[in-house]
Amino acid sequence: MTTVNAVESYLFQVAPKDLQQSWDNVGLLVGDPEGPVRSVLVALDITRDVVDEAVEGSFDLIVAHHPVMDCAWHPVQSVRTDTEQGYLLSTMLRRGISAICMHTNLDAVQGGVNDALADALSLRDTAPLGEDGIGRVGILGEELPLRDFAARVKDVLHANGVRFADGGKIVRRVAVGGGACGDCAAQAAALGCDTFVTSDLKYHDFQNAAPMGLNLIDAGHFPTEDVICPVLVNLLRERFPALRVEKSLRHGEIIQYI
């Protein structure tokens, strides 16, 4: 019988714990390390919909990217069913559902979030954007006008919309940063990138991009990171063929556009 600990150990082989940022919270965050696992639900976040899906689908384990408990920022001082996090934790514990979260270690590792994002956008000859392994820089197979590339990003990532600022460059050398990597824009420009795809950008991020000669595309947090979920599903199915491993059907982009 596969245990929760066996799945966690394998995922730490895929994305070693020492790659996590000092403030992060990764690994087995909820559940019994020796608990049996017969089925795994993979999602970017552990939301109420995802927990309900796990309960209804009789999943023993949720594997997610974002930590269900952001203890580095908001220490868990109570578990109450009338708070969102308390509901999630109490429901999972009561139903025997464990949670393993692989966050910044999965961002940094080769084959992780940022490689999945670069692959989705058909970048080649990729290399790390930063010394910490976060982000990737690669070459687009063909030069494209920014609007055409932004439209491609939207379609490929199944985003509900993208925001972008024109730095006056044709798109060819592209940096990507899954999730909120706006503080890497200057680094992307310094490496000779004409375009940077990331998310959660502020007004001044767009304002400051043009003087750097950098096209900036905000494709959304969920779309730029959800690309890792099918990768995790395939890895877990290959390593644990006896398990039922599925990607969440209920968790999706929360931000809508008119």
Percent strand: 15-25%
Strand runs, count: 11
Shape: elongated
Largest sheet at a glance? 6 strands, mixed
Helicity, as a percent range: 25-40%
Q: Name the poorly predicted regions.
A: none
Provide a count of the helices: 10
| Largest sheet: spatial strand order | 5-6-8-9-10-7
Order of helices and strands: HEEHEHEHHEEHEEHEHEHHE
Distance between the termini: 49 Å
The structural class is alpha/beta
Radius of gyration: 19 Å
Average residue pLDDT = 95
Search tags:
five-stranded mixed beta sheet, 10 helices, alpha/beta, 258 residues, six-stranded mixed beta sheet
3D architecture notes:
By secondary structure, this protein is of the alpha/beta class. About 35% of the residues lie in helices and about 20% in strands. It contains 10 helices and 11 strands. It has helices at about 5-15, 50-55, 85-95, 105-110, 115-120, 145-155, 185-190, 205-210, 220-225, 230-240, and strands at about 25-30, 40-45, 60-65, 100, 125-130, 135-145, 165, 170-175, 195-200, 215-220, 245. It has a 6-stranded mixed sheet with strand order 5-6-8-9-10-7, sandwiched between helices. A hairpin with a 7-residue loop joins β5 and β6 (about 135-145). The chain is elongated. The model has no long low-confidence stretch (mean pLDDT about 95).
